[in-house]
Amino acid sequence: MKFFADTAEIAEIRDLAATGLLDGVTTNPSLVQKSGRDFVEVLREITEVCSGPVSAEVVALDYEGMMAQAEKLRRVADNIAIKVPLTPDGLKTCKTLSSDGTMVNVTLCFSPAQALLAAKAGATFISPFVGRLDDIGSNGMDLISDIRMIYDNYDFGTEILVASVRSPMHVVEAAKMGADVMTAPPKIIHQLFKHPLTDAGLAAFLKDWEATGQQI
Ligand code: E4P
């Protein structure tokens, strides 16, 4: 399973890249706003640190506008994946860009039917937002298993990119279901390391080692 970092904070991305765990990055307009940085400038820096897919989202709502913005964004680096919303114009843009060899991430997916449409439009990635479904009392992970079944039934090459990840259990469940990618805030990726028995075991080993009086 590939790990993408869901952030536009360059320091966090550098930190994760150093662990060898980083396979890509996703950004969205809210994350760019939070970073307080110029979009193109921050994208350029991210692509210098991460050689995997870096998602950059268009904000136009019509096909012509999305295509014009995608042109500018994909010029930043070869590893930019253009992020388009799951709308008719978004999928039309997806079809044009993917036929041209550009990676496309179709975002804001909340149903299996939408995921089917994105795959038919040639999406490289489909981004189902599990956390936002949980927020409204649905089960976000059910959507992942439905999409996995549909994509496997028809051998679609579109990768399932689990988004809106809010906890380590979302990551584990997604991996059990065979999702291809998950994107999470760096904080969640760091939480994956944590187990109280690891901390307790390490403390006990260090205490016993100190008692031997030896050094390595
Ligand atoms: C994915 O590409 C999105 O940027 C992200 O996962 C949305 O997460 P949120 O629902 O926590 O904002």
Structural class: alpha/beta
Across the major sheet, the strand order is: 1-2-3-4-5-6-7-8
Structural Rg: 19 Å
Taking the alpha carbons of the first and last residues, their distance comes to: 36 Å
What are the low-pLDDT stretches, counting only 5+ consecutive residues below 50? none
Please work out how many helical segments DSSP would assign: 11
Considering the protein shown, what is the CATH homologous superfamily? Aldolase class I
Which oligomerization state do the chains in this entry correspond to? single chain
Subcellular location: Cytoplasm
EC number: 2.2.1.2
Pfam family, one: TAL_FSA
InterPro entries: Aldolase_TIM, TAL/FSA, Transaldolase_3B, Transaldolase_3B/F6P_aldolase, Transaldolase_AS, TSA/FSA_arc/bac
Question: Explain this structure to me?
Answer:
Keywords: Cytoplasm, Pentose shunt, Schiff base, Transferase. The active site is at residue 83. This is Probable transaldolase. Belongs to the transaldolase family. Type 3B subfamily. It comes from Sphingomonas anseongensis. Strand 5, helix 6 and strand 6 form a beta-alpha-beta unit. Helix 4 crosses helix 5. The protein is 53% helix and 17% strand. It has one domain (2-212): Alpha-Beta Barrel (TIM Barrel). It has 216 residues and is α/β, with parallel strands linked by helices. The chain is globular and about 70 Å long. Residues 6, 26, 28, 107, 127, 129, 131-132, 163-164, 183 line the site of erythose-4-phosphate.
